[in-house]
Amino acid sequence: MEKIKITECPRDAMQGLSDFIPTDVKINYENQLLKCGFDVLDFGSFVSPKYIPQWRDTAAVLEGLDLSSTKTKLLSIVANERGAEDALNFEEISYLGYPFSVSETFQKRNTNIDIEGSWDRISAIANKAAQKNRSVLVYLSMGFGNPYGDPWNAEIVLKWASRLYTELGVKILALSDTIGAATPELAAAVFKEIAPELPHVEFGAHMHVRPQDATKMIESVYNAGCRRFDGAINGFGGCPMAEDVLVGNMPTETMIDWMESNGMNLDINDDEFKKALKLSTNVFPLH
Fold first, then answer.
1. What is residue 287's predicted lDDT score, i.e. its pLDDT?
2. Which phi and psi (to 5°) does residue 88 adopt?
């Protein structure tokens, strides 16, 4: 059976909260997550505090993490060359994540630049990462449609995925349902159409879903060949532009339950994960 990779995303879960979560609380929570056995921890972002004030303490959080006995690798989100340079100063960070939207409108809203400008940014970021022997993970946001009327189809997603791989050497791409636009059937169809065209690319799923749709979505994209999944405990987080407060991140516990019930060995420490679940209620008391 192919290896399943799970990324836990406290960065995504916290970034939209208006109340600042104290640095020591973040550190305590993420250190517990590091004990669970996830493949990757999306732990913070080197993005201007003007846009993401919640993660203005990313460097301090990183300093407090205990990486001495974990297999989990760290991922940080960056939005431009400056952020990439900051992240690359830390050898502990294995992956730089960059949000590349296939929707012109959302790219402008998310990073204040159009798609061609975003291409220039990811080109520079990929080059800097290669020089430091780090990996780049690109999120193809609005990968399953958008609410703005921008052109969308699987061929558009494939075009950008192909360019990212062939021109920049990006080998990990996360198809991202930023606003909960995809049905399980649509998500499966997109994976089935795109992934076979780029067999050397590792495609992941970063899905924002309603709780009642989560299990079906996991099953659907898994059966379509996806083996890399992003989630957040209790489905915390989500995109403020989703226009539906129930559209949060894929709940990690739902993913684990479905996968383990279907005989998959995730190498997750169940006891430590239960502790993380319990701890999360103190980190997100009102959410």
1. 46
2. -70, -10
pTM exceeds 0.85: yes
Indicate the residue type of 228: R
Question: What domain range is 46 assigned to?
Answer: 5-283
Closest CA to 251 of 269, 273, 272: 273
- Give ∠ CA 149-150-153 in degrees, rounded to 5: 105
Q: How many domains does the chain have?
A: 1
The CATH number of the domain holding residue 56 is 3.20.20.70
What span, in angstroms and rounded, lies between the C-alpha atoms of 36 and 273?
5
pLDDT along the chain (287 residues), means of 10: 91 92 98 98 96 96 96 97 98 97 92 94 98 97 93 97 98 93 94 97 95 94 97 84 66 96 93 97 76
d(CA 273, CA 256): 10
Residues 6+ apart with CB under 8 A from 63: none
